[in-house]
Every structure is written in structure tokens, then in C-alpha cells.
Amino acid sequence: MKFFSGSQSEKLTQKVCKNLNVKLSPMEIFVFGDGEKRIKLNDNVVGQDCVLIKSTGIPTDVNYMELFFIIDALKRSGAKSVTLVIPYLGYSRQDHVFREGEDVSLQVIIKTLETLGTDKIITLDLHSIKIVEFFKVPIVHLSALELFAKAIKDFENYVLVSPDMGGIRRVKILSEFLNNAPFVTIEKDRDLKTADVTMNKLNGEVKGKLAIIVDDILSSGKTLKMAADLLIENKATGVYSFTTHAVLADGAADTLQASQIKKVFVTDTIEIPREKHFPKLEIISVANLITRALRG
């Protein structure tokens, strides 16, 4: 089995390779002056089962094009099979038509991956459980919630928080990992045109308790900040957050560092550049989850 890594996933891939005691195969990614990329594999993959680990953080479109090219290079070079480990599946929030006349970006991405010849996909914490049904190739859907549970179990007098109604399933699963820990939900509205968010209502009691926000994607950080403000207004003793995918759009690090959140826990599904690190940030690795899935 041969292992390859795309941009934004090198550190995670090295951890997985170390766990499996395998070497990372070399690959050349050349970028032309106009931004176009050319991929060259520097290993023989004829008749080999290949694993490609590549996430799709910012810039999402550039990362997807690189991903497509690597898959094409593997299949064109004679790989027997290609297992794609895509820790963060970009465009997962665009999984259906929100307004008349829109495309469904995620379905375009999935069709492209399948057309290129991807044989199996391993991913983590999709935005909606229904996304699994979009795939025609085998898919393994992992979750970082068990990792979050290990980190949270030592907290005392806490309540889990879903920052929107769409995250109820997620927070219920985490609650079960933590012996049916209590949880509350926040009702949130998002303007589909401007993407502006408003927090309308807190369903449940947080007074005198440590509030732990649980979410799947951290982009601008504004939702977490507003949720923390609402929780503190309702007399929570403090706020922590646990989010799987740290997209961290421009300005997110400053927003979160200035927020009332004490610690911002994320995973390494997306490799976070040094300039986006901030003092409150804590990173939990998903390497062991991916390793276990590949062994299975």
C-alpha cells in the first residue's frame, strides 16, 4: 500500500504513516506563474492500493483542484485502487438548494470524485448525516466526538451546548459518550443572502454551570462568539468550545481570542498555518481515528 499527501495535510499524514509504520511516497506539486498546478508522482504505483490524505481548507477551490489532479495521476499511473481520506469535506454546508436558482455544490464535488475513479472515501463529521447517502462509492464516516468526550470528562458541573438547532444530533451523541450529560440548544437564524447570524433564544438552563459549545465547522468564529456572549448573559460560569473542522477564515483568530471563550478546542482535520494560531487555541489530533479506519 502506498501513501500520498496533498497540501494542508502533510503533518496529519505523517502521523498516520508513523502509526502504520509505512513511508510517505514522494510527489511533486509544481505551481505555474498563473496558479495552475501540475502533479507528478515520484513512486511506482502500478497495481498498488494507494491512500491519499488531503483536506480542503482555505482556499477551498484551489485545494479541490489539487485533489482532483492527484487522483487522476494515481489512476492514470496504474494504481489498483485509491482510498481518499478527506478529513474535511469542503462545501459540505452546500448540500441542498436553499434558494430557487442555486446549484448544489457538494453534489458536483462528489460526482467529480466518483468520476475520477475514487474507490473509497474516509471523512470526518460531515455537516449533515444525510450527505452519506449522496455517495455511490463506499464511505466511512468518522467522528471526533469520542475525542472530545475524553477531553471533557474531567470537567465538572458542565452543560453541553448546541449553537444551533441543526446540531442537536451531534450534541446528543456527545451527551451519550458522557453518561447522558445535560445539554441545551440555541436557536440561531442565518440570512441566506448575507450569511449574517442572529442568536434568538436559549433553550435550557446554564446558570451556575460551565458551558461547553459543540460544533462541526469553525469558520468566521462569529457564531461561537455570539453563543458565548449569550451563555454568559444567562449566568454560565465560563465557556469552552469544541469544533472538529477549524476552517478559520480571515479574522477568526482575532475574533475568538477576544471572545469570552476560555479555550477553543479544534482538531487537525485542517492543517492550521502558524499565523492563524492564537493563545486560546488547543488542537486535538484525529490521526488515531484515521489509522484505525485504515486498518479496519
Structure description:
The radius of gyration is 20 Å and the shape is globular. It folds into 2 domains: 2-142, 3-Layer(aba) Sandwich (Rossmann fold); 145-285, Rossmann fold, CATH 3.40.50. The protein has 8 helices and 14 strands. The strands form 3 sheets. The chain has a 7-stranded mixed β-sheet with strand order 10-9-8-11-12-13-14. It has helices at 10-20, 60-76, 105-115, 145-152, 168-177, 222-233, 252-257, 287-295; strands at 2-5, 27-31, 37-41, 49-53, 81-86, 120-124, 139-142, 158-162, 183-190, 197-203, 210-218, 238-246, 261-267, 281-284. The protein has 296 residues and is α/β, with parallel strands linked by helices. 28% of the residues lie in helices and 28% in strands.
Task: Name the descriptors.
296 residues, alpha/beta, Rossmann fold, seven-stranded mixed β-sheet, five-stranded parallel β-sheet, 14 strands, 28% helix, globular
How do the strands of the widest beta sheet line up side by side? 10-9-8-11-12-13-14
Rg result: 20 Å
Please tell me the CATH architecture of the largest domain by its name.
3-Layer(aba) Sandwich
Low-confidence stretches: none
Structural domain tally: 2
First-last Cα distance: 14 Å
Number of strands: 14
Reading the helices and strands in chain order gives EHEEEHEHEEHEHEEEHEHEEH
Mean pLDDT across the residues is 95
The CATH topology of the largest domain turns out to be Rossmann fold
Percentage of residues assigned to helices: 25-40%
